[in-house]
Design goal:
Two copies of one chain form a homodimer.
Chain A lengths: L8 E4 L13 H13 L4 E2 L13 H12 L16 H13 L5 E3 L10 H15 L6 E5 L1 H4 L5 H10 L4 E6 L4 H10 L4 E4 L5 H6 L4 E3 L3 H17 L3 H15 L3 H13 L16 H15 L7
Parallel strand pairs in A: 1-2, 1-7, 3-4, 4-5, 5-6, 6-7
Chain lengths: 304, 304
Amino acid sequence: MDREQGFAGVMAPVLTPFGEDGAPDADRFVEHCEWLLEQGCSALAPFGTTSEGPSLGLDERMELLEDVADTVDPALLMPGTGSPSLADAIALSQHAVDIGCGGVLVLPPYYFKSPTDDGLFRFYSELIEEVADNRLRLYLYNFPRMTAVPLSLDLIARLLTAYPDQIAGLKDSSGDIANTKAVISAFPSLEVFSGSEALLAETLAAGGAGCISASANVAAGPIRQLYDDLQSGSAGKSAARVAAIREAIQRQPLIPFLKAIVAHYREDAQWSVVRPPLETMPEDVAAAAIRALADEHGFAPRFA
Amino acid sequence: MDREQGFAGVMAPVLTPFGEDGAPDADRFVEHCEWLLEQGCSALAPFGTTSEGPSLGLDERMELLEDVADTVDPALLMPGTGSPSLADAIALSQHAVDIGCGGVLVLPPYYFKSPTDDGLFRFYSELIEEVADNRLRLYLYNFPRMTAVPLSLDLIARLLTAYPDQIAGLKDSSGDIANTKAVISAFPSLEVFSGSEALLAETLAAGGAGCISASANVAAGPIRQLYDDLQSGSAGKSAARVAAIREAIQRQPLIPFLKAIVAHYREDAQWSVVRPPLETMPEDVAAAAIRALADEHGFAPRFA
């Protein structure tokens, strides 16, 4: 595997804006993707958790991906293509490969609980065999708090042995840096991303590739600055700034607040809409929290 | 709401057979549906948990439903149409209503954890508003062990108040008879099903409608006998028989074992296949367990 072809750096799980008809809004979405890249994101991970990816329909995901690939180099896209349904995960992954996506980020099937490693191996294995395309670069998505299905080191080892050219990396949203380090240490060829900028320094120090972070949707610039500073070994100031922004953001319901921030600074209330089961933040609560971010942390992103 | 139009009795969450190409097998599926009705199932719940419903693709579910509706009166069908994706849940529910299904069984969105009742209300509410068809009869599917998203009495009350003509019932797979009774007692107009024949007696005694039970896939006859005996107040013998069969079945991995039983007695090994992340039982383990069912409990279903 040629690491040059892979992903690294700061990636954003792109927020999904909804139009007044309730459907994903392609124009707002593409505009946000472009902003994220301008701000320093090295690549984009649409349809992740922060994107409300699992709340989107099969067709919605495919159409939106085609829309963004018209503008953004698809090699920079790592869409979430997981589903409890193997058939749908295959269809989404095949579609992403067909339009040239640099990778796909694949949750384990998360309806049935306590699956065995054999069952999970077979899920990923059948996906890879059915997509049957050597352009497929699959990133495992470990997020036990949402899925209740952790991906074990044994499972990763088996998959990597069976499909060394397809299993390209892993996003670890476990929040457990010991697990992230164990994966990096056991599988040096994998591109491993932490799910949070808070763990970026330790992830990079251990040999990881970067982070795929929700906060990047509004703070891509500061997080990219942190990444660059970490690379050059002088990250004290940018680390403190990113930590302060993060701490303030995490006090609110994450996805609704990120959308409220974009809505506020773009002066576009429609941006604040989330899809059920999430709830849009009450306007006054969001406004107060946004004001606090600006007043206490001087954080006021410019989307112009 | 006219109870006569609704569901009651013993229903089966129909097992989904897969063909040699890995896709759902319509011929085997329809044959099994017909057998279940002949054996005494009052109606069928395809695409439930036992059906591996969440493992099936959007198109697979629609095509299979059309295939069975060609043979079975669609008024007798209550397909599972839930999905973490509101868009897909709407598409599946609309499709089921369009082909005349008597009801739809709808899981809450199960990716995001700890949703609020407001968020869940909005999920079901938008589904009902978007389907926008007064033939829609929605059965709530409460299965916290799989979804980690329990449906509260408050949520049910709000939905029933807002949509008295659409919210028709609830399947309670919580395994908590106190919860089942609380639902029945609070909402006498709802058709409430337990998720297990083990709780059928108590559910009926409390005023519930019946059970939707995995075991019915192989033991529909004995469970129907139990239901009839309970109605006439003399269920001792059939209750003991059903309990013994259930206890033996539950010792094995449930869905793979049910499929192994069908495969064995239909002399059709293809029937034993499950989709990842579940695992097909090793043939010798299944054979021994099937033999024990026959030898110790005289249980050997006839599928001819």
